[in-house]
């Protein structure tokens, strides 16, 4: 029987398959080492249907995994490509669809692999787009026949606005005014995506492509996009950690941590009330944008969301975010699943559990995480919605 689609949805073309036609729920795996088969099998057993994988932390003989050198891309690193393909196969064998999500591109090295410094070259000179396009053309050529790859996520959390005059969480009118000034320039994110999509389509006409909103994929950053991209197999992704001053791990180091629900700084507002209603209102922005440009809601993805698990009322926050996403029948993936270098959003540990010294020792020695995991009351909030 064919799936029944709501009026706000539209089927992807038949040659792409029907995976994204109905809401898909999964998790993010951004680990320092390729994951064990058990990790993917357990994620699948929790009823996740997809996993978003970033490989940039993995060890490589080269400066940058898969890229070789983000400063001078000359082609995919064969050994790294083999490792990536093996990871995709393990996830696929576990019953998960895979979204590949680089944290770095040529001329855009992820800050944590760049001595903590933001690398803005990709969006400061349009000439740098060519190497990024070459990389994606090469990678799509290698992955196009995989039955497990559900989408290519061009770049995780781009920020072409960062070194410009546009502030984070500016008003919609301020964003639109800014975009009018930068349209056609190296900071034109939709134009950048059009360029990369065209390169991918030279070698792969079928695989869906996922694009993150600007300003680190903020849910309000589609507000300046005048239209969708020209390719009809594109998914539009945003992330949700707002209010970041509450949900992030640094909040736990405050003398008096901020709580949810409660007041927190956001944009120009130094004390904004965040609760279930405000979360829903904020997450309705990409939905309203989609409606304004004629985009079906089944092409919207919350590619990441979460909160530091020890934050007061993280459970309520997760429930409220998922409720808002599910109310609009959006695809989503929680952050993160069994991260092996950072336990702050490892919800299987609950609100008070700790990984133990062997976890940190394994990280120092470059060995796999030895922790044995199981569900918790906190994780069950996500588990029951997967």
**Widest sheet: strand order?**
1-2-3-4-5-6-9-10
Strand segment tally: 10
Class by SSE composition: alpha/beta
| Terminal Cα span | 22 Å
CATH topology: TIM Barrel
* Integer tally of domains: 1
Helix content: 25-40%
Runs in which pLDDT lies below 50 for 5 or more consecutive residues are 1-16
β-strand percent reads 5-15%
CATH class: Alpha Beta
Question: Which CATH architecture is right?
Answer: Alpha-Beta Barrel
Task: Assign the CATH superfamily.
Answer: Glycosidases
InterPro entries: GH, Glyco_hydro_5, Glycosyl_hydrolase_5
Organism: Enterovibrio coralii
Protein name: Glycosyl hydrolase
GO molecular function, one term: beta-glucosidase activity
Task: Give an overview of the whole structure.
The protein is globular. The model is unreliable at 1-16 (pLDDT under 50). The chain has helices at residues 37-45, 78-93, 129-143, 172-182, 189-201, 214-217, 244-247, 276-293, 314-327, 357-365, 377-383, and strands at residues 25-29, 50-53, 97-100, 149-153, 209-212, 234-240, 262-266, 269-274, 300-305, 331-334. The chain is of the alpha/beta class and 386 residues long. Helix content is 31%, strand content 13%. It has one domain (19-383): Alpha-Beta Barrel (TIM Barrel). This is Glycosyl hydrolase. Keywords: Carbohydrate metabolism, Cellulose degradation, Glycosidase, Hydrolase, Polysaccharide degradation. InterPro entries: GH, Glyco_hydro_5, Glycosyl_hydrolase_5.
